[in-house]
Amino acid sequence: MLDNALRKAAAVWIRPDGHEPRLVWALWRDGAVLVAVGGTEQQVPGLADGVTCTVTVRSPTTHSHLVDARATARRADLDDDAAQALRAARLNGRPEWADVYRLEPA
């Protein structure tokens, strides 16, 4: 269920432990959610290497709740293919981020 939901989602809700949830643009790739933050990208207070968070996926058509999953954030060094895929997933020009995190489901 999680894999299928994340393949279709362009945005997910992320709630780092101890912080409020944030709606973020994300990309499901290689079994993890990639989230770009900082720079001209979204800000996610509390998101840091090793932080546990809850990822909530809603239906892209009805916005109904589909699934919650616990995940651990890991700072990612992207290869060229992953960086290009993340840029292509964004629809608002050329994104510039400070960090990218892989949210790896528990």
Keywords for this structure?
106 residues, alpha+beta, seven-stranded antiparallel sheet, 7 strands
What does it look like?
The chain is of the alpha+beta class. The protein has one domain (2-105): Electron Transport, Fmn-binding Protein, Chain A (Pnp Oxidase, Chain A, Roll). It contains 2 helices and 7 strands. A hairpin with a 6-residue loop joins strand 5 and strand 6. The model has no long low-confidence stretch (mean pLDDT 85).
CATH topology: Pnp Oxidase, Chain A
Span between N and C termini? 14 Å
- Quote the average pLDDT: 85
Report the top-level CATH class: Mainly Beta
Proper CATH architecture: Roll
Q: Report the principal-axis shape.
A: globular
Structural class category: alpha+beta
The percent of residues in helical segments reads 10-25%
What's the CATH H-level homologous superfamily? Answer: Electron Transport, Fmn-binding Protein, Chain A
Low-confidence stretches: none
Q: What is the number of beta strands?
A: 7
Count of folded domains: 1
